[in-house]
């Protein structure tokens, strides 16, 4: 009896022991801390016994060549075999049945070892991947994680010997090693899987809404979770969902029972209706937290938290709808690296918000990452700031076949699974060039398999004639469509240093001065601030004039390349790309404010938008043109309250005041509406002599933590005695700091671009520097700035501690980052203003090639009608469905970038105008005296001629597009119409 009693007692105790282990809730920790790094391959580095004590200590995310960011041109970024090692003892207050590693990415290939055992390999260089280390991990002893990385530009996939198309020296900055976060997940045997298909083959949680009613603020919420049972017996319990709003208030709780067999993988689905929904929107990053829990008979909880938002989308009629309203796409094609000097892409989470929110503050609503999938931190950041995303897989410049196409599909699959809960992801991009219909269909199948309910369109660049793609749009050009939306994916390649105001301001950079690019004139890539801002207006105007509301076929918008100066392919004088509307430290250029004026609206801009280009600090006697950007109808300019004139309006938004003589004091612009009512005013003041420095500390609102990755951004300005910034100051600033942080510095024009220098100049009176925290080192930091002849300044701050559990921690710098709600809910915008209607064409007749006339109005910009090259046949006549008033004609002519066409326009056989077209990036608008009629005839009245040389070449030497593939340059009597739209204005 004693023996039986003892057995019973031991059994009870063992059961209690098992219960206490199993009762621990799942947990995820940052694995970023206390890594060691060695540059170069080294034998036996994966082994437990290897001595890494002399290796460099680093905290992830950390690219081993991060200091080269902006110091070296992209094609000079260093490559090598680099080892990362971490010593790890598991905590005891977590479930240890299942242990997973989550790498947000590695560059390019990574081989992962645990305690000398090979665990797995990942090679695409951009996407997240997971590793199941449950069998190899030591629960109570020290573990060694070793990762061998290889960031060779010519890296080849081990199994196939194939290269990766997007491992490209032009656009994919090579920050090697482990430049993204690493996490460790502790889970029980019955658990919700991770959304990491590579290596793990799992899909995680999927949240989506159906029956969305924006006006009534309600929807049906579905929450799916893939669950695995890796215990040795069937399990049952409760699958529960909690929904919390942005303030953390529980707004819905629902659950259902589940059962799952041993060894089974199963998708559980729970649904409920949500009322009083706050919808995610542009500039309104409202997010909910959805907590899914798996509770089983052993009282084990596997808990997953998913941040998401709800919005309603549609893509039809050539337009994008968000929450039932038409929204013209306005934004940037930003390099996926989104890098900063001497740091690369591995910035603190708040700094990602700072940068991405600036896009929203310039009134962008969409960012297209180029040309590879962005990292998780930027995707989550766009959720918070309210910035929609066009999300690519991986590409370079063309469709591919074989293994390289399979690689792209795999990245798309992984990206969709990883990011399908992020409300800011609106568009999946299948290629940076057009892809075949067969390939487009394959991509749609992937989207429909893994994200069938997310309200996201999938397409590719170009796809102008695709019947399958759900959006398209060329690179630099204007496309219109009555079917799927056409969004230009990277317009305006011009470059300009922030340092150069104009030709009248030191250092007196002559606009356009710089070296040739591929033997061609490169003045577009060496602009100053004045001409860069003007070009921003010029380029956007072509999209704006064919915006939604201007006919049946419209442009859905365009994305300016790029937002911030980038350590990627360049065409100008510097060794990095300066196409940004902000510089590498995110200091705005004047083009930033140009977009702020033109883009402040869903389609039509707020008429109050107003900006004076440049500054008002010149030598006495200087005479220059002043430019004002306004969304109003009229602008007056005043010097010291004396009116000097009314602006000459062009390009809708640009008001020019030629030959203005500088006088010290104030330069004021006042804008008015069509009735003369004042809308807004802006003032520039002449600053006096530089007097003092001013430092401004910036950090995320969630605090500054010693996690080894958190950062501080400090701005330095040169001010006069009145506190005005001195816009022409170029003083050298000497910085000194004390405290537990690492200096990363800033950037300026000069030797090595001043990367990591502790002395660097202000440019246009301002600059910024970065400092990074050190792991587990806390305390006060003081930064001082000195400049000869100026009063110094200093600023101080405190680094807060983090809570560590055996070297693991929750990433405090990521937690509690606030959402941007500045633009408001955006659910009561004015309805789309219809400016003109398209008059339907019934049929057409032509002087030649009658069988091709439909191609000129078939809503396909890859086809055209062309005559036979003879002047007498260079005409086409369109018969409308009925007689109506005719006001404007939009026509896309072949060689639209380079050729001018003398044309006569007849309505019902009456000559109403003759014009010579100008070169465009797509459509030329012919304005007619309002005429009633039914027949519209376009006739070439003289030989077309070259109006602008089409010399610009792509990075590979390919000449930029100029219409259909046929070249009509030498056909003087040729009239070729790609598309025509005939309109009546309302």
Descriptive account of the structure:
It is a single chain. Helix 2 crosses helix 3. With 986 residues, the chain is mainly β. It contains seven helices and 58 strands. Strands 49, 50, 51, 52, 54, 55, 56 and 58 form an eight-stranded antiparallel β-sheet that branches. Strands 28-27-26-25-24-30-29 form a seven-stranded parallel β-sheet, covered by helices on one side.
Outline the secondary-structure elements:
Layout: H1 2-22, E1 27-30, E2 35-39, E3 56-58, E4 62-63, E5 81-88, E6 98-103, E7 109-114, E8 117-122, E9 129-132, E10 143-150, E11 177-178, E12 182-187, E13 190-192, E14 205-213, E15 218-229, E16 235-244, E17 250-260, E18 265-274, E19 288-296, E20 301-308, E21 313-316, E22 319-322, E23 325-326, E24 329-335, H2 349-361, E25 366-370, H3 376-385, E26 388-392, H4 402-419, E27 425-429, H5 437-450, E28 457-459, E29 488-491, H6 529-544, E30 557-561, H7 590-598, E31 610-612, E32 623-630, E33 634-639, E34 642-646, E35 648-650, E36 654-661, E37 666-672, E38 678-685, E39 692-698, E40 711-719, E41 732-738, E42 741-745, E43 759-761, E44 766-773, E45 779-786, E46 793-799, E47 804-805, E48 808-809, E49 836-838, E50 841-846, E51 865-866, E52 875-893, E53 899-900, E54 902-907, E55 910-916, E56 924-940, E57 945-946, E58 976-985
Parallel strand pairs: 24-25, 24-30, 25-26, 26-27, 27-28, 29-30
Antiparallel strand pairs: 1-12, 2-3, 2-5, 4-11, 5-10, 6-9, 6-12, 7-8, 7-10, 13-15, 14-15, 15-18, 16-17, 16-19, 19-20, 21-22, 22-23, 31-32, 32-36, 33-34, 33-37, 35-36, 37-38, 39-40, 40-44, 41-43, 41-45, 42-44, 45-46, 47-48, 49-58, 50-52, 51-58, 52-56, 52-58, 53-57, 54-55, 54-56
Helix pairs in contact: 2-3, 4-5, 6-7
